[in-house]
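Honest question from a wet-lab person: if I give you the sequences of every part of a complex, can you actually get the arrangement of the whole thing, not just the pieces? Trying it with mine:
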Amino acid sequence: MSAEPIILEMRAITKEFPGVKALSNVSLTVRAGEIHAICGENGAGKSTLMKVLSGVYPYGTYSGDIVYQGQVMHFKDIRSSEAAGIAIIHQELALVPELSITENIFLGNEPTKWGAIDWITAKKTALELLARVGLRDDPDTLIKNIGVGKQQLVEIAKALNKSVKVLILDEPTAALNEADSQHLLDLIRGLKGKGISSIMISHKLNEIEQVADSITIIRDGLTIETLDVVADGVNEDRIIRGMVGRSLESRFPDRTPHIGDVFFEVRNWNVQHPQVAERMVVKNSSLTVRKGEIVGIAGLMGAGRTELAMSIFGRSYGNFLSGQVFKDGKEIELRNVAEAIDHGLAYVSEDRKALGLNLLDDIKRSIVSAKLSKISAGPVVNDSKEYAIAERYRTSLRIKTPSVDAGVNKLSGGNQQKVVLAKWMFTDPDLLILDEPTRGIDVGAKYEIYGIIQELAAQGKGVILISSELPELLGLADRIYTVFEGAITDCIPAETADPETLMKSMTSARKKVHSI
Amino acid sequence: MSADTSPRGGLRDLKKIFGGGSSNVRQFGILFSLIAIVVLFQFLTNGLTLSSGNLINLVSQYSYILILAIGMVMVIIAGHIDLSVGSVAAFAGIVVATAMQEWNLPWPLAILLGLAVGALIGAWQGFWVAYIGVPAFIVTLAGMLIWRGGNQVIGNANTVPVPEGFTTIGSGYLPEVGPFTGYNNFTLLLGLIIVVAVVMVEWRARRVQKIMGSEPAPLWVSILKVVLLDAVVIYATVLFAGGRVGTSFPVSGIILGVLVLFYSFITRNTIFGRHVYAVGGNKLAAELSGVKSRRVNFLVMMNMSILASLAGMIFVARSVASGPQDGLSWELDAIAAVFIGGAAVSGGIGTVTGSIVGGLVMAVLNNGLQLLGVGADRVQIIKGLVLLIAVGVDVWNKSQGRPSLIGFLTRKNKTGEFPAEPPAVVPTSGTPDTARPSDVST
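Yes, you can. This is the full assembly:
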């Protein structure tokens, strides 16, 4: 590996924002045809470094050198870095949903003949590129009609079209299910064989361990170390130690569950897709939650986990068909979100920015937003109480902010998630439904959020935990339901569960729900 | 804060005179612009701008636009727009005028009728916007045509006069009472009340800050703030009270003042106000927090039409008759006021006071140019440019990572020079900006 020539070197990069030093003397060396992972907690400076490399922050706004193929480069924008062969693929994809695959691949780079777009060449090239990334869809398909996994592949095809030599992938698998992730990782490995280097930012350490050749760890804007995966015998714990600067003996806080009686039950729940009436997104599902219990829900993306949760939470998704909800032995009606909140339900969405927070709001207003009546006299909100409550959550959940007057958009992902949790804890719920509560959150903050979840359970609340990360479910939950194609396929006590059995139930429709 | 000896500490304290907090910086900038424009015209018109007669005229001439701006800012915060306000005003005006002329309806009842007409129109438009889901732009574009036509159908495209009692709300002044002082006593009393209120509000704010455990600004900041504000109030009071005999502070100005206080309170301090911001900021997140977004949208649209009908009646009262051309292009003045006052086109941001200041900028500009004898054609061009530049500077400043105008003004006071940040979102291969990833984490 080390015999390969160095294709890219970032030397002593320092980047300052007003009042903050985001990067300080960071160096990165990438060899031709290697997969180089960059690890670090959120806010460590990974994305800033990639923005410097790709020209988002142009030459002159940082100090240090970018040496690429032996030359010092002065990128003035993304175009110039792309022209040199460095392409960045963002976490949120930059494709136009209403255009076709071909149109997207050639957007801004259209092949022309006599001044008009040469669609024949475009489509032919598109087919070749799609074959290279292993996508067999018709290139005329609109982007909005293919899944996120395939969209990711189209992005890569787009980069390949620009004869890329260094591909930067920012959290490429964050939104992908297991199978799509695997396909993407295989593709990146395949590109490596063709001499294309990849720089990969990911929070999924198992994936990094699996594909990366070397790893650079960044912490607080400093390069901590660069590891050679094979030579240094790197594993997840080793990476975590570098990222957080201490070894987490255990990735989950210790907990002795105190589980009470069943207090919440959903029976024979059926929900239709909001647009396509014949499509059932939740099929005859039943589940129970006990007091003080953390109930996991495992399922692949699109299996209907979120749909199940949201439809229970005041029918906020899909068309409700039939089913019953019982709480404390009595049947309750949850016709809208307000009723669900009044009955002591809380739902923390998987999409923090789109569904969880008003990013224009400040921290204190966000925290009280789901139950304003609690701090109001009649219609009038009491500002002092609001402030006091926000301060209390800031301290108890350790939300890192100079003041609760700060906007939530100024917070890192982990701290935003704490605000969302505070918002729902403030409603004083009996049952919390947490949908991917640690998505896109760094390791240190994850640990804290696990602690909060366990604390909520310890207070006697019921928790439904939806997660794509099986280790998270196995580490936290007391009991795990598996969901496949809208139906609950199994219910496994945590002691007997392991990734293999869960995965089996998540991918097959065998019906073996244990009755409680 | 008081122990803060850095050069920026003093600046921050100074900012607090105008309401501190990062959320108010935009208004701070626009307030500065207003003062600058007033001073400029005072100079250019040789003192005519800040004369009793002109100020009284200014208030009674623009109060109805400012009333519209109050409703409009709530509509815009919720993420909509209302193009129909001018036509709704004209429609309510003709209905009220006709009712008083044809059915001899007493004028107090006629005002209630006018408000009811506004409420009905608002309910109609709110229904389409909130419950059917037609964009407000379309619904109110239709409303613009419907109610304009309705005005002409009811009035036969003629002018309908209104009786004397009714005209009070548009062209009335505070009455002359008490001993002769050379000033209008009622206006003086009103000024005194405001002077005391300013002191009390500031004192209470300091007390609340202390209870909440946050450090209030140093005492001198509060005192300076109160002295400055009260000086302005006293100056204005003397001007308003010292007008031609029979004139004083206009009744329409009182109505406006009450509405500003009421709606500032609604938007800032009530659950409903919070819900308006929540729906405009992120509708899905608001709904998942139990906010009934449809009801919020319905009420916001309905409220706008009620205020539009009130504005229409004040205008009719001022011009002593309702005509087919009433309220023409008012919507544009109201919308301009709101955006100059710092609201965001995409919703979720804006304040009532900001919009009033924005409206005053336009009013003073209009008035000053008229005093200078600039033709209506050029006034329009200048107003258009001011709107574009005011919002343009704001948008540009935001894209530069500075909060707003005031960020621009105070930039040189910061820690020396750092290179200008590029816009965070950079198009690469011609992908439209809207499709680019939003730039959040670093």
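Two things worth pointing out. Chain A touches chain B through 74 residues (CB under 8 Å). DSSP finds 17 helices and 24 strands in chain A.
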